[in-house]
Amino acid sequence: MSRFDVVALVTGVCFACLALAVLGDALVAPLTWGLVKVVVPLVLVVVGVVGLALSRRS
Q1: Do 24 and 31 meet the contact criterion of CB atoms below 8 Å apart?
Q2: Which of 3, 8, 23, 50 is spaced 20 to 30 A from 15 at the CA atom?
């Protein structure tokens, strides 16, 4: 089984989330700071946990 490059994966997921947020802001509805203050920390925690889980050597 091949190993993932965890740093590249986490960075790519963060930039994909940022791109989706900007695209949604431009096409669907404007983002409010209240929504950003709740969603961004949750996404960063989830991405961090996934990165930690993938970086474990088992």
Answers
A1: yes
A2: 3
